[in-house]
Amino acid sequence: MTRNIKELIAQMTVEEKASLCSGQNMWQTKPVERIGIPSIVMTDGPHGLRKQANPGDMSSKTVPATCFPSGAGLASSWDRNLIRKVGEALGEECLAEDVQIILGPAVNIKRSPLCGRNFEYFSEDPYLASEMGAQHVLGVQDKGVGTSVKHFAANNQETLRNSINTIVDERTLNEIYLRAFEGPIIQGDAWTVMCAYNLVNGDFCSENDYLLTDVLKKGWGHGGFVMTDWGAINERVKGLQAGLELEMPYAGPERDRMIVEAVKSGELEESVLDEAVERLLDVIFTTYDARQEGYSYDLEAHHALARKAAAECMVLLKNVEGLLPLNPKQSVAVIGALAEQPRYQGGGSSHISPSRLDAALPAIRDAAEGEVGFAQGYSLTEDITDEDLIAEAAELAASKDAAIIFAGLPDSYESEGFDRTHLNMPASQIELIRRVAAVQPNTIVVLSNGAPITMPWLDDAKAVLEGYLGGQATGSAAADVLYGHVNPSGKLAETFPVCLEQTPAYLNFPGGKNEVFYGEGLFVGYRYYEAKKEKPLFPFGYGLSYTTFDYEQIEVDKELLKDTEMVQVAVTVRNTGSRAGKEIVQLYVKPEGSSVVRPFKELKGFEKVSLEPGETAKVTFTLDKRAFAYFNTEIHDWFAETGVYEIMAGPSSAVTPLTVAVKVVSTGIPFRKVTRNTKFYELLAIPETAAFAEKAMNGSVEGLKQMGAMFAESMGDGSLGQLFEEILKWKKYDGLRSIVGLMGGGNTSEAELEKMIRELNKTLGL
Q: Active-site residue 79, yes or no?
């Protein structure tokens, strides 16, 4: 239905406009029935629908819905198509329940593995998180249901999340923490964005002009509206001025009155309120008009998709002597309370009432032909090493061909609302694994956890399968992988450290009582481990398969390109094993030299391909300027400096056997204006100023050489002359002012320098 939104706004009173800027209750927006503005319903996500039967009644029960794997698991699939299908399924369930906006995806970066909400987030890498988030948004919104990308921004801990001030430098904020939001917002065109509770560099996210206006609206062109996380409001009028349209949930009539009074007093321009209302109405009508009365979906098909997704997300971390997949005729001991009572999702606002739940024990019994025994092994309610339970488990394990231990983190170890303080599993489970492995060499550990854990027992287990929080079909999916019905193809979307002390943010997490300093800067996740040359427990992008792959060739369609051009990269990979399988080809870019500090290499492309035994595939990637650029804080934009870049391909961040080099020539200018402090290397990188910079730099060095020779002769010290052989190498990092006076060789005056600067700016049109 077509409406003239501006005409509707013209008919509204200030009070009616203000009313749209806050909710009606916990889950609905306010209607303006007089002119036909409806109320819409939103509800929690992101990996399933958490809708109360009556959105206006907080005591009503949550309706059953399909619980898909949480974000940590979904990202481990590295599968854009799969994520999009999950998004479409979420959209269908929203249509069936008359929900117009689902709150997700959550794309915050995993700065530390201690963050209690990491199970909900995709990755430590902003490119991977951005790509996963974009597909989630596209899938949901294809069904006419809105998404709300969260939590904007730099919300990377639960400790003091309502009040902590995140102190992060501009470059790190843009390259790491904001980069993850670009895909969902720009590529996915997310209809809404949810701001975070915390402050960023002194301003609450709900009233942060830089985030909500400069970046989101002006920089990225976001046309939808911004809502608060529930209760994440500080000053209502200030928030509206900064770009916050909707406060959720309803907090009483006072909030609306604040807006009305601000308009009437002149504190708030009514045009600002009108723009907010226009953004709100555009999304409200779009989602409301997409409603489909009586819509239904295939419940079994959605469960089957949840099972497929869970299996695709599982990461095979260890498989000595090809223990997996199991032969169905083998007898097995299934051990661990989690085999009967699976932990399939995290705690907090994303907690789903599943439409059904598959436990691993019955699924293994269905898959196996040999005898299957079960022992509880440990308690899920308390971490006490029960000798009777362990003895029973060990006795059972010794009597079977293999033992499968289901272990991981209980609900009490990780959840929204608090951060972890360690990376350990319960001591009772660790002891169980060691005791069982001592009597059964074919011991397999299947993990259920939302974030990395330490593994002091790793040498004891012959095989390890990371299942993450796999959703309602996690048990049947685990059986599918264990028995080879599905060849594992997941890869880690985060680094698993050896210990907590090895993690990048160890010294700066969770900060003090008022602020947290992101002291690790750009070096989050694998960027840190590679810079420090530290070997983690398992690297980013790592994951095994029941088959093997060989990386045979890498090609580029050009070796020299301007930053305005794109380069095509083709990677040839072969399945060299005896089973069909899927491989995730990962592409990294490494600058061979840079004028600024940069990570050793960064993920810039990935593709998941399915190959039959002996089959090859040529996987093609397209890299543009952004693949080579860093965020330049002088121009406050992305800048790809002239230089050689190595493009690397392989199965993980730690293994990149294929490399090819390209040279990128920058057409950009890395500063807003030439000044006396502009560096020679910056001018050397610009074709229009390179000749001048070289001449001025060489002239300055020659003057210094003559002076040095004079001193060397008077002092009888011939070694001084050798010093000037190195001067030219370092001179390029000096500012233009260095050519003036004695240290510049005494050949250039201040007046001459100012004239040079004016001519350079004229040449560059600045």
A: no
